[in-house]
C-alpha cells in the first residue's frame, strides 16, 4: 500500500480541520514541521465536511480547504461532503 | 533572538528594481502594479522556436500589424495586477451572490410576467456561448500578444467571461431549468436569429492577429452587445415591464462592462496615438467589424425589441461611434 | 405555485457539469482544424474531450472569493514585514542569496507558465482542459507577481536582485532554468502539459517549494514563507490537473502510452537537472538547514514518486529510467554544484562562500559516503587559499551541456572521480552532453536543441558585451564587459560573501537594532 498525504499551513483556520481529519482517519500519522502540518496515511485519506462543521461550529465548504492547502499526493475525488485522496494500488 | 526592528531607521540602497526605474524615469518607490507588470515578459535570447509556429519567437511583436515603439506604453487604468483584480471581483461576486439570494429567497422569479421571463430566457441563455467564445479569444490574445502591459488584462478578461457564462447559466437555472440550457444551445446552433452571431464568433476564432482579436472581441462585439442587451434591453426595456429582478441578476455584467470599457478605450487610444498607420488600421478593423457585429446582433435584438429594434440598434451604434471618436479613432 | 420548492439542489459534480460542460459547441462556419491547429501534430489521439474531469470543480465566483482571501492575507503579512524591517530577522545575511537565486531563476518561470497555460488553454478544444489550464494560467501570473512583490523590499537593501529580468535573459547559469521552460512552451500543447503540468508540478514541485518554503520559515524569512505557502495552495490544484491530464491522455488511446512515456522520461530528467540549483540551496545556502537534498529526494521522489508510478503502472507507464542515475548522483549533486558556483562567483548575481566547520560536519553526517572523502579536502584547500588572500575565481569558461546547459561538472554515475562526457556529431558539428539522458534528448530532436543559446558560446562569439564594445583593444577585460552586459556591478553583486556589502550592511543594521533596545 502506498502513502497519500495532505499538507496544510499551521494556523487558527486549520487547527480544527486537522483535528477533524485525524479523528476521521485513525490510521493517519501527523508530521509537524515549521509552519506546516503534513498528514500521511496508508492508501487513503478522507476529509469529511460534517466533522469539520461539528468542530468549527459553522457551515463549512470543502473548497475553503484550498486556502490553506500546501501540497498533497494521490488521486483526488471531491464532492460536497467529502474530499478523498487515494492510490489505486 | 527576536529584536524590535521597528526602531531601526536605515537608508535603502535603492527604491525599486532597475527596469522599473528606467521606465518611470527615476529610482523612486513604484506601485505594485508597476513592479508586477513592467518587463515581466522575457524579451531576449530565447532558446528555441515554437515547434507549433517556427516562423515566430516565443513572444513576437510581429504577430500583429500594430506597431509600437514600446509595448509598455499600454497601461491598465484600473492598475490590475492579480491581487487588485481578485479583490475587485470578489467584491462584485459578493454583490451578485446577495442579489441572487434576494431574488431566490423572495421567490421573485415567480413574480416575473410570463412574457418577460420568456424573452429573458430566449435572449440571455444563448449568450452563454458568446461569453465562452470570448473566454477563448481572450486566452488567445494573452498567449500570443507582446508585452505584459497589453497581455495581462486579457487573462483577467478571459476569466471574467467564464464567470459571465456561469452567471448566465445561473439565471437560466433560476428562471428555467437544465432543459432551458439545452434549448438555449439548440437555438444557438439552429435558429436563424443566432446564426449571424455564431458565424461572427466562429470567424473571430481563426483570427491570427492578437491586436485585431482584441478589437473584434473586446472593443467591437462587447461594445455593442453589452449596451444593447444589458444596459438597454434588461435594465431599461424589460425593467419597465416588471423585469427588475432580472436586472439584479445581471448587475455583474452591467458593472463589469462599465469598468472594462475604460481599459478598452485607453488601449485603443494609446495604439491610435502612436502613429497614423496604427490609426488607419484600427479605423478599418473597427468599421468592418462594427458593421458585421451590428448586422449579426439585429435579429438577436429583435427577440426583445420587436418594432423598435432598428431604432435602438441605431442608437447603440451611434454611442459606439462616439466612444471610438473619443478614443481617437473617428469611424 | 412556488417554483423554488420544486427545484432540487444540485450536488457539486452536477452543478459544475451544468455550469461548464454545455458551453462549447461543434463549429460549422469554420473548420475544427483551423480553430484548433496544434492538437494533431504530436500524434496524441483524443476521442472524447468530455472525459477530462476537473476534480476541484471551482466555478469563477468561488475562485474569486477564495483567491481574494489568500491575497488579502498575503499582502497584509508582506506590509507588516516590510514596516517592521523584517529582513533584519533572517538568520544571517548569507540567507539572502537564496532569495536572489529564486527571484532571478524561478520567478520568471512562473511568468512563462502563465503564458504557456494560456496557450494550452486556448488550443485544447474541450471545456474541461480549457478551464483547468486557464485557471492555472491566471494563478501563475499571481505567483510571478507575489514573488516580485515579496522580494521588492529585499531589493531595496541588498544587492544582486536589482535587474533580475535583465539577468534572467542573459546570465550564464540562468540559461539552465530559462531553457527548461523555453523547451516546454515551444513543445506542442500536449507535451507542455506533460512537461509542466505533470512532470514539473506533480513529480518535482514538492522538491522545489517545500524545501524553499520551509527553508524560508527556518531562516526567519516571513515574506518568502508567506508567498511560498500561498502559492503552494494553488499548487495543490495544479498538481491534480497534472495527474488528471496524464490519466486522461493515457485512457484515450493505447497509442498515446509510448509517447507519454518518452515525455515523462525526458521531463523528469530535464526537471531534475534544474533542481541542481535547489540541491545546493538546501545543502549550502540556508544558514539553518531543514533537511538535506538527499533526504528530500528520498521522501518526495523515491517514496512519493514511487507510489505515483505504481499507480500509473495500470496504463503501462513505468518509472523513468533516469531515476537509477539520479539515485547514484544524490550523494554528489549539491557538492559538485556548489563547487562550481564557488569557482564562478565573479560572474554570478549572488555570493558564495566556503562552509564553516560546523556546516562541514553537518554535511558529513548527511553524506557519510561522499562528503569527507571527496569534497571536504577540496573545501579545506580553498579555505586555506582564501585565508592567504588567494580566493580562487575561475576565469576560464566551462564547456556546457547542449541540452541542460549546465557546465560539464557531473561525474560518471558510480565513479565520483571521473567527469562524465558524452558527445554527438550532427551535421558537421560536435555537441557535448553531461549525461546519457541529455544526449538522448538531443538525439531525438536535434533540430530543436542545436538552436540553444549557450551562454559560453555566446560570450566567445562576442555576443555578450555591451553594444559598441571593441574586444580587440589593448587590455580588453572580457569579464568586466560581460558583467556590464549582465548589468551586474563588480564588487557589489558578485564575489565572495566574505567582505561583501550585504555582509557589512546587515551586520551594521542589526547592530543598530540591538543597541537601540
Ligand atoms: Fe506557480
Ligand atoms: Fe545535461
Automatic annotation (TrEMBL), chain B:
Keywords associated with the record: Monooxygenase, Oxidoreductase
InterPro entries given in the database record: Ferritin-like_SF, MP_mOase_hydro, Phenol_Hydrox, RNR-like
Name this polypeptide is given: Phenol hydroxylase
Domain of life: Bacteria
UniProt GO molecular function: oxidoreductase activity, acting on paired donors, with incorporation or reduction of molecular oxygen, NAD(P)H as one donor, and incorporation of one atom of oxygen
A Pfam family recorded for this sequence: Phenol_Hydrox
The UniProt record lists the keyword Oxidoreductase: yes
Species per Swiss-Prot/TrEMBL record: Thauera phenolivorans
Amino acid at each position: 500500500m502506498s502513502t497519500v498525504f495532505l499538507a496544510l499551513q499551521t494556523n487558527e483556520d486549520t487547527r480544527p480541520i486537522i483535528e477533524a481529519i485525524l479523528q476521521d482517519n485513525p490510521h493517519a500519522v501527523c508530521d509537524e514541521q515549521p509552519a506546516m502540518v503534513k498528514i500521511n496515511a496508508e492508501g487513503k485519506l478522507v476529509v469529511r465536511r460534517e466533522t469539520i462543521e461539528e468542530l468549527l461550529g459553522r457551515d463549512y465548504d470543502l473548497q475553503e480547504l484550498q486556502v490553506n492547502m500546501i501540497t498533497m499526493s494521490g488521486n483526488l475525488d471531491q464532492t460536497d461532503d467529502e474530499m478523498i485522496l487515494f492510490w489505486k494500488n | 533572538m527576536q529584536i524590535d526592528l521597528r526602531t531601526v531607521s536605515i537608508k535603502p540602497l535603492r527604491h525599486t528594481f532597475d527596469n522599473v526605474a528606467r521606465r518611470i524615469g527615476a529610482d523612486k518607490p513604484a506601485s505594485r502594479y508597476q513592479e508586477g507588470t513592467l518587463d515581466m515578459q522575457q524579451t531576449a535570447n530565447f532558446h528555441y522556436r515554437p515547434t507549433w509556429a517556427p516562423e515566430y519567437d516565443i513572444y513576437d511583436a510581429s504577430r500583429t500589424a500594430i506597431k509600437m515603439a514600446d509595448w509598455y506604453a499600454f497601461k491598465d487604468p484600473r492598475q490590475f495586477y492579480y491581487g487588485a483584480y481578485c479583490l475587485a471581483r470578489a467584491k462584485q461576486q459578493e454583490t451578485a451572490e446577495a442579489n441572487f439570494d434576494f431574488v431566490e429567497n423572495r421567490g421573485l422569479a415567480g413574480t416575473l410576467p410570463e412574457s418577460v421571463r420568456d424573452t429573458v430566457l430566449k435572449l440571455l441563455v444563448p449568450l452563454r456561448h458568446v461569453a465562452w467564445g470570448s473566454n477563448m479569444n481572450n486566452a488567445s490574445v494573452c498567449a500570443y500578444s507582446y508585452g505584459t502591459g497589453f497581455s495581462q488584462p486579457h487573462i483577467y478578461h478571459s476569466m471574467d467571461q467564464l464567470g459571465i457564462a456561469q452567471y448566465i447559466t445561473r439565471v437560466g437555472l433560476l428562471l428555467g431549468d437544465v432543459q432551458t440550457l439545452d434549448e438555449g444551445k439548440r437555438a444557438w446552433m439552429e435558429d436563424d436569429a443566432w446564426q449571424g452571431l455564431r458565424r461572427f464568433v466562429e470567424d473571430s476564432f481563426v483570427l491570427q492577429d492578437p491586436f485585431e482579436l482584441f478589437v473584434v472581441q473586446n472593443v467591437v462585439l462587447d461594445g455593442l452587445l453589452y449596451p444593447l442587451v444589458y444596459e438597454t434591453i434588461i435594465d431599461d426595456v424589460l425593467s419597465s415591464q416588471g423585469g427588475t429582478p432580472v436586472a439584479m441578476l445581471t448587475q455583474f455584467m452591467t458593472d463589469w462592462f462599465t469598468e472594462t470599457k475604460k481599459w478598452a478605450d485607453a488601449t485603443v487610444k494609446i495604439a491610435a496615438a502612436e502613429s497614423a498607420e496604427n490609426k488607419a488600421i484600427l479605423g478599418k478593423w473597427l468599421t468592418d467589424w462594427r458593421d458585421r457585429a451590428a448586422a449579426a446582433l439585429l435579429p438577436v435584438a429583435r427577440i426583445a425589441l420587436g418594432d423598435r429594434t432598428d431604432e435602438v440598434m441605431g442608437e447603440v451604434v451611434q454611442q459606439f461611434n462616439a466612444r471610438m471618436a473619443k478614443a481617437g479613432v473617428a469611424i | 405555485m412556488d417554483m423554488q420548492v420544486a427545484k432540487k439542489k444540485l450536488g457539486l459534480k452536477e452543478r459544475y457539469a451544468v455550469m461548464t460542460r454545455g458551453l462549447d459547441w461543434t463549429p460549422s462556419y469554420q473548420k475544427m482544424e483551423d480553430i484548433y491547429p496544434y492538437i494533431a501534430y504530436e500524434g496524441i489521439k483524443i476521442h472524447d474531450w468530455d472525459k477530462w474531469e476537473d476534480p476541484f470543480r471551482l466555478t469563477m465566483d468561488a475562485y474569486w472569493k477564495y483567491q481574494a482571501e489568500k491575497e488579502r492575507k498575503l499582502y497584509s503579512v508582506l506590509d507588516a514585514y516590510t514596516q517592521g524591517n523584517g529582513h533584519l530577522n533572517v538568520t544571517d545575511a548569507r540567507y539572502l542569496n537564496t532569495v536572489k537565486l529564486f527571484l532571478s531563476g524561478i520567478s520568471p518561470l512562473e511568468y512563462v507558465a502563465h503564458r504557456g497555460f494560456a496557450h494550452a488553454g486556448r488550443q485544447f478544444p474541450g471545456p474541461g482542459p480549457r478551464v483547468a489550464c486557464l485557471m492555472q494560467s491566471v494563478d501563475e501570473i499571481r505567483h510571478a507577481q507575489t514573488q516580485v512583490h515579496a522580494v521588492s523590499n529585499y531589493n531595496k537593501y541588498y544587492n544582486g536582485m536589482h535587474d533580475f529580468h535583465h539577468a534572467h535573459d542573459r546570465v550564464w547559469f540562468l540559461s539552465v532554468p530559462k531553457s527548461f521552460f523555453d523547451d516546454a512552451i515551444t513543445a506542442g500543447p500536449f507535451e507542455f502539459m506533460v512537461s509542466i503540468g505533470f512532470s514539473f508540478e506533480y513529480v518535482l514541485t514538492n522538491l522545489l517549494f517545500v524545501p524553499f518554503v520551509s527553508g524560508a520559515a527556518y531562516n526567519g524569512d516571513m515574506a518568502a514563507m508567506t508567498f511560498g505557502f500561498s502559492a503552494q495552495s494553488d499548487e495543490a490544484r495544479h498538481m491534480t490537473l497534472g495527474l488528471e491530464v496524464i490519466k486522461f491522455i493515457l485512457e484515450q488511446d493505447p497509442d498515446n502510452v509510448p509517447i507519454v512515456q518518452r515525455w515523462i522520461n525526458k521531463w523528469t530528467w530535464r526537471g531534475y537537472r534544474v533542481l541542481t540549483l535547489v540541491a545546493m540551496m538546501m545543502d549550502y545556502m540556508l544558514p539553518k538547514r531543514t533537511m538535506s537534498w538527499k533526504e528530500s529526494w528520498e521522501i518526495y521522489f523515491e517514496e512519493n514518486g514511487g507510489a505515483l508510478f505504481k499507480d500509473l503502472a495500470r496504463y503501462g507507464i513505468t518509472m523513468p529510467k533516469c531515476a537509477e542515475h539520479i539515485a547514484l548522483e544524490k550523494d554528489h549533486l549539491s557538492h559538485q554544484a556548489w563547487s562550481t558556483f564557488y569557482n564562478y562567483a565573479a560572474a554570478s548575481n549572488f555570493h558564495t562562500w566556503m562552509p564553516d566547520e560546523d556546516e562541514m560536519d553537518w554535511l558529513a553526517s548527511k553524506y557519510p559516503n561522499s562528503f569527507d572523502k571527496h569534497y571536504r579536502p577540496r573545501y579545506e584547500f580553498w579555505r586555506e587559499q582564501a585565508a592567504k588572500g588567494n580566493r580562487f575565481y575561475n576565469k576560464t569558461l566551462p564547456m556546457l551541456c547542449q541540452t541542460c546547459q549546465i557546465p560539464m561538472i557531473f561525474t560518471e554515475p558510480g565513479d565520483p572521480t571521473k567527469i562524465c562526457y558524452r558527445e554527438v556529431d550532427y551535421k558537421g558539428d560536435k555537441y557535448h552532453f553531461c549525461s546519457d539522458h541529455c544526449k538522448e534528448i538531443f538525439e531525438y530532436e536535434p533540430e530543436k536543441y542545436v538552436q540553444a543559446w549557450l551562454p559560453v558560446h555566446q560570450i566567445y562569439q562576442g555576443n555578450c558585451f555591451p553594444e559598441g564594445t571593441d574586444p580587440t583593444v589593448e587590455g580588453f577585460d572580457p569579464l568586466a564587459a560581460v558583467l556590464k552586459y549582465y548589468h551586474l556591478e563588480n564588487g557589489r553583486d558578485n564575489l565572495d560573501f566574505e567582505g561583501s556589502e550585504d555582509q557589512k550592511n546587515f551586520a551594521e543594521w542589526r547592530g543598530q537594532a540591538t543597541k537601540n533596545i
